[in-house]
Amino acid sequence: MTLPVEHVSAADRLVAILPKGLCSFDAADSDFFLQLVPGPRNRAGVPDMIRVMKERIEARRSEDAFSVGCLYGPSGCGKTSIVKAGLLPTLVSIYVDAATASPDTILLERLKGRFPLLGDQPSLTAALTTVRRGEVLPEGHKLLLVIDQFEQWLQAHPNSRENDLTTALRQCNGTHLQCFVMMRDDFWVAVNRFMRELDIRLVERVNSVMIDLFDIDHATGVLSSFGRAYGRLPATSSLLSPQQKEFLESAIAGLAVDGKVVALRLALFAEIMKNWEWTPTMLKKVGGSKGVGVAFLEQPFGTHNAAARFRQHQEAARNVLQSLLPPSNRAIRSPATSHELLQASGYEKRPQDFSDLLSILDGELRLITPCVSEENQASIELQAVHAHATESATAYQLAHDFLVPSLREWLSLQQRETQQGRAQLLLAERADLWAILPENRQLPSLWQVPGILWWTRQRNWTAPQQTMMSRAVWHHGLKLAIMFLVVIALSYFGYEKYGQTRAIGYYEELLHARTNDVPGIIEQMAPFRRWVDPLLKRIAADPVTHSNRDAQLAVQMALLPEDPMQIGPIVDQLLTTSQPQNLAVIIQAVSPSWQVVGEQLWKQVEDAAPEHVALRLRAAAALATCDPDNPRWQPVSPSIVDLIIDQEPTVLLYWSNVFQPLKKPGGRCAQRLSG
Q1: Mean pLDDT lowest among 100-104, 172-176, 512-516, 530-534
Q2: What is the CATH topology of the domain spanning 39-211?
Q3: Rounded to an integer, what distance in angstroms lies between the CA atom of residue 361 and that of residue 375?
Q4: Which of 78, 103, 120, 272 is in the most buried spot, having the most CB atoms within 10 Å?
Q5: With helix as H, strand as E and coil as C, how does 440-504 read?
Q6: What is the pLDDT of residues 208-244, one digit of tens each?
Q7: How far apart are the first and last CA of the chain?
Q8: How far is CA 189 from the centre of its chain?
């Protein structure tokens, strides 16, 4: 049964608790830390999980101890604090964080610093061999190696058989040398594989201990302790007001998932609420306990009452935190060098501002923490020679894996406010999916690619993003090219079909049209000549057409713009037509090419033979329009006027209109025509 904080021993209850926000508890907090640990306790108030670990570590006989053990639990359950504040203060130990690129190198340096006799050892294996033999430890003592965040090392070294650290840990014998690795529970299979390389079988409560999340009762007790520490709750539970009790219940209900509460989330919630009243109204005002991680990030940078010093670094802080996020398919933190963070911040020309930003994120907010990246391994060796470390040798990572989901949500909320931010989110999301499953369906869509190209800077793309976008541009470019060719082909065949249909329509309309309507139809069929002309040529050669003079004339007039040879037959139609009302239309068709037949027409006009009167009048009508200024009109105009006068009164108006161009003021022909 879990005991609330109010039911621990009187000696523990008198020690004031000092919350540390996102920072883990350490040896300096050992006097009160045991109050915060869940689980049953012995008479001395030591929690059962710590008692089991201490007994196995302090055992002198090899059969009662273990060589390499494992402490595991969910992210944010407090593993680091339990070991640093509850276990290590009473042990001879060396602690190292596996977030460093090479924990074996760090272990070797710290061993040499603790035991000067190891100064000439060339490797961690050699140094631990000396420790195992008992050559550097006092009689009756053993050394405990603690490797925290071991999942980082497991993920970086999937094949651990011949790794330096694996070889070195084979020296652990349980009597002089032990090792305890700490990791998240979702790496249980990976750590079992690692233990098999050491010929070790993990047995619960023998060489492995699980740290669970807080249950509801214990979480309520811990939150009450934090509230008292911040001066927001009274000294004892009996003095809590109904509103404060409701606050605690609502807060824990919001923080709990399946009846369990993440310890780190609880500490973070208390840190956020330390400056406000602990009432239900205030809890609702700050967005409830479920958004605790986002609220913690928003408070120093996004609120109106945030410090001016923080607000001026708002954009740079976002960029730095964004660069430290792992891909979306991972929850393990990714380190970045200080140079990479400097570029991400945009402070390349403002190093002092960058130093201030790191001070805020690391020293004040504890959002990031220094580590050693693979690229800086050479710098580690340099630091062993030089007394101080340079800033360039420093790498950083997020302080807790627990922050990864909250940080993603906070950054996405900020980015969704702008078009550029939404494009960046889309790019990151698609690139992460592409990295997991590089298939075309994971690429940005055809309509998303232009937005990403426009709203993001290619120089800021990561290598996976560049690879994905190159593939997306190629893929959609090929798709567009195929679509374009298909559209062109469909348009071509569609236009062909349309042209053929329209050509047949014009063709049939032309055959049945009145002569006066033919010019309009010819004008409309101009865009469809390619389809109309073959039909016209075929019908022009058809003997049936010759029997219909109007249809024959319409076809000849339609072919004339493309076939100059049609001018002769049209002139023949002009000279022999029996319908004066059609003369103007035929003459209009002949006029562009009248020079070809001009001499032929003049010969007809100047021919005074009586049998050619009809031909002479029609030829004169054509020349009146085509060649009205020719001096040859002077001798023939009287006879032409006489011919016009002799026409039937019903058609006289048509003849008058045809000869209209000759009615120039002062001319003899004009006088005769006017008379």
Answers
A1: 100-104
A2: Rossmann fold (3.40.50)
A3: 22
A4: 78
A5: HHHCCCCCHHHHHHHHCCHHHCCHHHHHHHHHHHHHHHHHHHHHHHHHHHHHHHHHHHHHHHHHH
A6: 999 999 999 999 999 999 999 999 999 888 899 999 9
A7: 134
A8: 33
Bigger pLDDT: 347 vs 570? 347
CA distance 267 to 229: 12
Task: Give the start-to-end residue ranges of the domains of the chain.
Answer: 39-211, 298-417, 443-562, 569-675
User: Counting beta carbons within 10 angstroms of the beta carbon of residue 43, is it exposed (0 to 12), middle (13 to 18) or buried (19 or more)?
Assistant: exposed
Question: Which residues share a beta bridge with 180?
Answer: 69, 146
3-class secondary structure, 277: coil
Q: pLDDT (tens digit, 9 = 90+) per residue, 355-404?
A: 999 888 887 787 887 775 444 444 433 343 343 334 444 688 887 777 78
Are the beta carbons of 373 and 337 closer than 8 angstroms? Answer: yes
Q: pLDDT confidence of 199, banded at 50, 70, 90? A: very high
Question: Do residues 309 and 364 touch, judged by C-beta distance below 8 A?
Answer: no
Instruction: Tell me the pairing of strands 395-398 and 368-371.
Output: antiparallel
Instruction: Quote the CA–CA distance of 435 and 335 in Å, as a whole number.
Output: 19
Average pLDDT over residues 108-134: 91
Strand ranges across the sheet with 177-184: 93-97, 143-148, 177-184, 68-73, 208-210
Amino acid at 516: N
Place of tokens 């024959």: 552
Report the candidate in 31, 30, 35, 46 with the shortest Cα–Cα distance to residue 7.
Answer: 35
pTM: 0.60
- Which residues touch 453 (CB under 8 Å, ≥6 apart)? 469
- Using the predicted structure, report yes or no on whether residue 424 has a pLDDT greater than 90: no
Instruction: Report the alpha-carbon distance of residue 499 to residue 521 in Å, rounded.
Output: 15
Long-range contacts of 271-277 (CB under 8 A, 24+ apart): 271/19, 271/21, 271/22, 271/296, 272/296, 272/299, 273/230, 273/232, 274/19, 274/230, 274/232, 276/232, 277/232
In what helix (H) or strand (E) does residue 60 lie, and over which residues does it extend?
Answer: none
Q: Kindly calculate the radius of gyration of the chain based on its CA atoms and give it in whole angstroms.
A: 49
Question: Can you tell me the distance from the alpha carbon of 390 to that of 653, in angstroms, rounded to the nearest whole number?
Answer: 111
pLDDT of residue 9: 41
- Average model confidence (pLDDT) for the chain? 81
